[in-house]
Amino acid sequence: MRRITPQIAALAAVAMLALATPAQAQQADAAHRAAASEAYFEYTDITQATAVLKLTDPAKIQHARDLLSGATTSEPHVIGRIIKRPAPYNWRWSYHYNPDTVDFFDNAFEVCDATIPYVEEHLDEAGGPFLPGLIWCPWTSRLVRELPAP
Fold first, then answer.
1. Does residue 63 sit in the same domain as residue 52?
2. Residue 150 and residue 40 in contact, taking contact as beta carbons nearer than 8 Å
3. 11 with 76, same domain?
4. Sorting pLDDT into bands at 50, 70 and 90, what band is 1?
5. Number of domain units in the chain
6. Phi and psi, residue 127, nearest 5°
């Protein structure tokens, strides 16, 4: 009887580990999916000023990574609607791109073109004749690097 009790205890422990492992794996997988659903990229323009944008669309995240790796040169510039308040990941500036509106382009209308510092200096005018609809498309924008999540 003494030999059976340790064997039963060992089997019970193995069974508990087997049951616990899928739950832990699901938690790890959920955390990985959440991390994979957003990415942060530094971008610059002709002034050499830099800012950070957040992407949440997997296709756009992949396009950004392809631009950085050189796998594509198509649509290298950033466009989107700005929000007139700082974001924790873009703390240097009083505005940031709305992550749900960010996209990439080759050519755009002049009415949405401005440099990073110019937008900061004229932010109170944005949304009127300057950057109508708060759409910003800096023609000289380009991604610099991907950043770790803050």
1. yes
2. yes
3. no
4. very low
5. 2
6. 105, -15
Which pLDDT score is estimated for 110?
84
**Distance (Å, rounded) from C-alpha 56 to C-alpha 139?**
22
Statement to judge: residues 116 and 141 lie in one domain: yes
Tens of pLDDT, residue by residue over 24-58, are 444 444 444 444 689 999 999 999 999 999 999 99
Q: What is the pTM of this model?
A: 0.76
- 81 in the same domain as 18: no
The pairing of strands 50-55 and 77-83 is unpaired
Query: 25 lies in which domain range?
Result: 1-36
